[in-house]
Please model this.
Amino acid sequence: MATRLDQIGLKHHFVVAGDYNLVLLDQLLLNENVKQVYCCNELNCGFAAEGYARAHGAAACVVTYTVGALSAFNALASAYAESLPVILISGSPNTNDLGAYHLLHHTLGTLNFRYQLEMARHITCEAVAVTHPEEAPYLIDKAIRAAFRNRKPVYIEIPCNLSGALCSAPGPRASLLDLPESDPVSLAAAVDAATAVLRKAVRPMLLAGPRLRSYGGVEAFRDLAEAVGCGVAVMPSAKGFFPEEHEQYVGVYLGSVSSPGCSALVESADAVLAAGPIFNDYTTVGWTSQPAVSKTIHVDPDRVHVAGVTYNDVFLNDFLAALAEAAKKNPRNGTTLLEFRRTQLESALPPTADQDAPLTRAEMCRQVQDVIDPNTTLIVETGDSWFNGFNMALPDGARFEIEMQYGHIGWSVPATFGYAVAAPDRRIVLMVGDGSFQLTAQEVCQMVRLKLPVIIFLVNNRGYTIEVEIHDGPYNNIKNWDYAGIMAVFSSSDGDGRGFRATTGKELAAAIQEAVAHETGPTLIECTIDRDDCTKQLMEWGPGLPQLTDELLRVLSCPAPWTVQQIRLDGAAWRPR
Ligand code: TPU
Ligand code: MG
Model:
């Protein structure tokens, strides 16, 4: 296992120790090329690996049986949704325990020791359990190969008593990391069909989707864009996959809450090539906006849909590269870009607020924007931080990370930790809301432990503002914390994390100055803003999501034939029509 993790290029793996994995951890420590990084809990451990995979291409984490693995599963599901090859390794009962009728701790207290493997199958593309030392090299390779081919997580279970057993040495890594090749006939046909569509189009557009990076298409997409010469928009989770300073860049496409001028271009296009998109309820703003299917060349990771025909076994990277070769620039393709530029007002810099007035969201964003340089990775958490992030300008080289398909609040803190471990030379900036932070806050202590100079903007708006905009109630209020003060707790006597609270523009500017200069640990800046001070995009997007409204209740709940009257929970009775 250690040799393979090393050979696939991992420099670290993330760990929470437990008595089902201790011997395995000893074995992994023998390979000094792959360092162990410890986490506070297994959910965070999984998310740290997820964040590491974003920066490094792949990741591994090691946990103990059931009590550990079941927590890590949530993060593994995130890696599935976000298309990241994360390898989850779990210790498991000894191979003789079942036959010996041994009931074991950390289990359900039954003799079923298979449930964890069965559960893992639903959230991985390959789940294997080693049951004999000689099977280990084969099964480990099988899982790792699947993770790289599918860009999805995998699960490997290793019994305690086999963790130190001898097995045959692994050979050279051979084809472990190879991606499958496209079917040449399908590929050529798909490229022909797409070329014909693009050649005919007068107002073509390119749209980058979240799967573009996972499936290795970022460079080919750029080549294609330049070959076609048309406008390029990105979906929110693909922000940063096409340079924002490029002359063809037109903004973030998110239906009615797109960046200015962008949705009109995408929706009026007569051909849209969408590369690795995910159109879900969030990204279509509650199914209100999506480029017309009949006009879309829809490029999935392993197939392409053009003009009502699906070309299977055509891989995204191959397709984009081949199309970039075939596509010719059509002088008319620049029309939409020209229109776009005309509609753009001179982008005025946001006004600087009165520096002694209470801090506002707009002033906070204005100052965060100044921190983002070409070497920055901006990570944004679920909440209004998403929308704050979409609005930030990324200079060339800057990167952007978001977990918008899975949308697990609390993801960002451990994922930022993992990302920072993988990319120690980048400036890592996190924007996270108070509600999200409360889920996984403790992982900041690991940033302190490893002296990672992450800058955390903790947006304290006293609640779940994103939920307030979707559907409000008392459940959106949360207990306030002394977020700045928590850094002293995490630093204790052996760390150097710093915490500041900014209630005005002046305090924020001073805190940012300290944060940028602080190199021996993370800095958390608690930005206190009003509960209702949110982006106008959130105000429009939130109510647009399908909710359980009375109208939907009436449409969806078909009473059973014997029901004469149903009692609503609020006490009001209604009769089925
Ligand atoms: O900026 P703001 O106030 O919107 O962000 P904050 O304070 O982080 O609040 C986020 C609120 C939120 C919840 C409670 N966003 N989504 N949810 C639902 C949710 C619950 N549990 C998990 C694990 N993930 C979720 N997305
Ligand atoms: Mg909040």
The chain has a mean pLDDT of 92. Residues 383, 433-435, 461, 463-465 surround magnesium ion (ligand 2) (CB under 6 Å).
